[in-house]
Each structure stands twice: as C-alpha cells, then as structure tokens.
Amino acid sequence: MAFITEPLPSAVDKSSLNDISDGFESLPYRPEAVNGPKFSAGPALPTLDKLGVEELPEDVNALDFARKWINSFAQYISSCDVEGLLSLLVEDAFWRDILAMTWDFRTLHTKPRIRQFLLDRLSVSKLNSLRLDENMVELERPYPDLAWIQALFKFETDVGKGSGVFRLVPLPESNGALEWKAHLILTTLDELKGFPEKIGRLREQSPNHGKWQEQRRREMEFRNEDPKVLVAGAGHAGLEIAARLKYLDIPTLVVERHPRVGDNWRTRYEYLHLHTLVGVDHMAYLPFPSTWPQYPAASKLAGWMESYAHTLELNVWTSSEVIGAEQDESTKNWIVTVRRLETGQERTFTVNHLVCAVGWGGGLPKMPVYPGMEQFKGRVMHSSQHKVAKDHIGKKVVVVGSGTSAHDICSDHVENGVDVTMVQRSPTYIMSVKEGVPRVYHIYNEGGPSLENADLITASYPNPLLKLMHQRLTNIIAEADETILDGLRRRGFKLSMGDEGSGSLTLAWTRGGGYYLDVGASQMIIDGTIKLKNDSLIDRFTETGIKFQDGSELPCDIVIFATGYQKSRDGLIKLLGNKFSSKIKPIWDVDAEGEFNGAWRDIGVPNLWCMMGGLGQCRLHSKHLALQIKALQEGIWNGSRYSA
Fold first, then answer.
1. Mind telling me which InterPro entries this protein's record contains (predicted)?
2. DSSP secondary structure letters along 15-66
3. What is the secondary structure of 470-505 as a DSSP string?
C-alpha cells in the first residue's frame, strides 16, 4: 500500500496530526505511537524537530544534493568502505534489500545493524555502475514537519541489474547550512545478467505461418516433457507468477480446479467489487485499459483473468487438481500427481519447483461453531457459499461479521428488500473510498509516476516506517470521513483505528480483515436499513434464531458467517498433506524486521514457494519470486540467503 506524498490540504494543520479520536474502541492512539519518543531506539519518523532543523530553506536544490550524495555513495561502494557509507546515513536509517544483496527480503534498521550487514555482504554483492535517474529526483513535503529528497537510481551486481531509492533528510551543520544524509536506502534486483525477460525488443521476432495453433496445443499438453515449475491455483497470484516464468523461458503448468480461469472470482457473491484504485491493480505485462471502471466488479475481473491467460499464452489446466505431492530428498524435485476432474485421468509430473497460489487459507472457510447449531431450523452458511440476496426475499437474515464481505452482503440484502441484521463481534476500521482510497493510493493516481516507478517507490518504504506514515494518514482520513464516522458512533457501531492507529494497513498484514472500505453500506447502518446487533456476544443457537450472552434473542431464517478464511499455511498443508506441517514456516503476518513471512521467499522447504497477496503485491513480487527460481535453475544462486 502507498500513501500520500503530496502537500497536505490547507484545511489540515500540523497540530491535528496526532489528535486522539474519541469513540474508537482500539488501542489508545497516542502521539508517541505516531512519531515515536523523540530519542526512541525504535522506528520513528525523521521529523524536522527530531533532526534539529527549525526551518527548511525555500531554495533547496534537490538535484545537486542527490548528485553529491550518490557520487559519494558510489565511491564508497567501489572501495568497499563501510565506514564511509555509514557516514552518509543518519543514526536510525533503514536499508531495505530485496534479493540484490541478500537473496531475501530484509530490512536493516539503525547504523549498527547496517554496519554488520555491509561488512557481511558489500564485497560479496559487488555493487557497481550506480546511475542516478535525474528525472526522478524531488524534494517532498508529505507533512509540514517532514521533508526529504527522494531519488531513484540504477545499479548492477555481479549477477544482475537492479533499481534503488534513497531519501535524504536535512541535518544542521555548525555554520548554519544543511547537510543531507540518507534515512532510507532500497536496493532491489530487477534482472539476471544474460537472462532478461523476453519482452519488448526481445520478444519473438519470426513469423509463425500456420503453426501457432499446433504449437500451443503441444505446449499446453506437456506430452513429451514435464514442466519445470507447477503452479497450484490460477487466481491472479498463480497467473502472474506463471507469466513471469514464461517470459524467463521456464516451462510452467498452472493447475486450476475450477472449470474456467477466473472462477475463484466469478463464483463468489455477485455484489463483490474491488475497493482499491484500478491503477493499483494492474497485472504484469498487461495493464487494464484506460476505459476500465475505477472499481471493477468481481465478475468483470474474472473475465479479464481468463483473457489474460489466453493473451499471454499461459499453460493452464482447468478442471484439474493436485492430488499428491512428494519431494525427492536427494534432488529436491517434486513428484506431483494431477487429476483431470472431467475425465478422471491422472498424470504424474517431476518438476523442479512447486508454487502454491491457493489464496488466503486455500479457500478454507473460518466457520465458528456454537452450541445448538444443529437444532436451528433455518439455514447456516459461510459467506463463500452465498451468491445473491434475492434468494432470501421474505426471510430474516443475520450476517455475522463486520468486515468487507459482511458489509457487501448486508448491502445486497437491503437493496433486495430483505430484512438483514449485522452482528458485530469486534471493532471495525471504516474508511470511505471517496476520502481514503485516493489518499492511501495517491502514488497510483492518474498523472503520477510510471507504474514501474510507483511500485519501486512503494517498495522502498519498509513496513515499520510505512506503519508510522499510515498512523498519521489514518487521522487525516478520519477527519475527512467525520460525518460518516459520527453517524456510525451514534448508531452504536464499534469503530477501530486499526493496530496502533494505522488503519487498514496492518490489519491486512496480520488478519486479512477487520476493516471496510466504505462504498455505501455505512450509510445503510446509519439509516437503520442494515440493522445492528453488537451489545452482546453470541451464546448459542435456538430452533428459531440466535441467543446472546445477555439473554437477548434474534429470530432469523438465514445465518451467514462472514468470518473470513483460515490461515494461509493451512491451505498449503491441505494441498501437500500433514507430512509437511512441521517444515512449513509461518505464512503472512510480518517478522521482526517487518517483512512478510513466507510469501515470495523461503518457506522452510526447498523449491516450495507461496505466491499470494493483493493484485498490486502480486504484480511486483511475482518478478522477485520468478527471479529466485530462474537463478536456481541456471545455477547462478545456490539457495543460501543472508541470515545474520
């Protein structure tokens, strides 16, 4: 997720950035949770006050300072001068590396950690040929008390080519001038030398008169040779990693249990839409057309995915499923058995890599169990089983949950004239798409940087730093959404500001839910057309409804649990079997450095990978996962990662 880097609206003043918002049932939203204590050892925003800068001159020449800094940076890099490099950083700097120097996703914070990292990896990585992108240098003032020079650069290593970002913050010198040092450095691998993606001028050049259909048939069948990679799941994650691998010349087969590509979206409830900007959700190689709606329907996205697989000539077996997977202990190859569901035929492949792209929890619903459910004379279902509200006309419906799916399903019922009650079990973060989404995803708005540069800039914010920025942004969005939030409070809806006031950001990291990007359901709650029950927790089911712990009862005919899905790790174990349960590491949530666990990186089992995340995350990190697989295939990398 990105955030605003434009100047704040004039209506927002500095004093409001850390106001405590009354009525939110979350952890106290403390000013120190936003900025950090002034001399805290933990992550903190580099405010001008913290840096000791009273005022920034109006005539800062960002390009000159960026040139000077990168020239020194390149000199110290070439001579492997660790102390020289450290002299270019502030004390609490971040260095985030994605594959280029660590073959991993790592965030090193503070000079002592960065010093050890450079001692261990600088000479090994052989960074060279650093080049400043002078068209992508600018002084940014995201808030009145924050200022930095942001610059993009290119570099090479002994095995590849990469891109980077640095942000310089001002420090006062004794003569009253300002010295600019790095608060943030990103280094990320883009390409392996000798193995570029077969796109643009490297795409197929020769005409193929009359041979294309037969060629595609042979490619799809894998009759004479096995694929090198098998991907389980043809959702956006599976399709994008397959596309990346295809254009790195790695034969790949995608196995999908649904009859059609896109059915994982097409078969969900009809009311489902994307709630993020279309500019964030472009897929690798094939962006959405400029005619697309800002928030496309799930069924429309499903059709796009089907056409994506066809246009990019991806090898997808639909109506197929993985029914067995074993790993050869000596070669670490995978022996994978696939069943074609329409014919019952089975085929066993030996592949070098197995990529699991089975979605959040492998599609396994998280379904609470309450006493008396077997006595209930109505119908109980999970949100994954719900299709359309018009099937429930004339019934009383209860939706358990208060995240996105719950709001969508309740809205659908209201619009079809169905009596519906939302049972809210815990506080929920609410942000309107009108006020919140353009601010959160500002960098992807029309008129911003290229998609490639927007992704690079977004990746340059380590998650601990991103969380601090979102804590501020969450307050600003709440001010803009004041009318809606006040209405929800009056209605009794329990509001949250997210984990330590960071909005939906860390809720997505840790829970994959607990928030709603409002497209209209909040007003229905305020108006009372979506009824609300949240003054007591569910105790048990009765024959005619639900009884709560305070003794109250809610009669109903249909109960829909919009309670999410099981953990991502559970989906992999379901696919592979319990024999791998002791080996597979945690997946999703973040580690001590703020990097995501498992996804796109080491998962605990050699040559086993997890591809997951939102559309934007998969566009970006499918490249990083594909580069790791290609490097292993070509013997460029032995699989070892920097672990200190």
1. Auxin_biosynth/cation_transpt, FAD/NAD-bd_sf, Flavin_mOase-like
2. GGTT---TTB-SS---HHHHH--TT-SS-----HHHHT-S---TT--HHHHH
3. HHHHHHHHHHHTHHHHHHHHHHTPPB--BGGG-BHH
**Is the pTM value of this prediction over 0.85?**
yes
Residue 152 identity (one-letter amino acid): L
Range of the domain at 69: 62-192
Distance CA 106, CA 595 (A): 7
Contact 172, 178 (CB under 8 A): yes
Residue after which a domain boundary falls, among 535, 561, 587: 561
- When divided into structural domains, the chain yields a total of 3
Compute the distance between CA of residue 558 and CA of residue 170 in angstroms, rounded to an integer.
60
Which CATH number do you get for residue 153? 3.10.450.50
Amino acid at 140: E
Calculate the dihedral angle through the C-alpha atoms of 58, 63, 69, 75, rounding to the nearest 10 degrees: -160
| Residue keyed to tokens 């500001």 | 497
CATH of the domain at 419: 3.50.50.60
Fill in the amino acid letter for 236: H
Residue-wise pLDDT for 4-27, tens only, equals 344 343 333 333 333 323 333 333
> Do 242 and 277 reside in the same domain of the chain?
yes
Q: Two tokens at 194?
A: 């000798």
Question: Could you tell me if 490 and 591 lie in one domain?
Answer: no
- Tokens coding 550: 């305070």
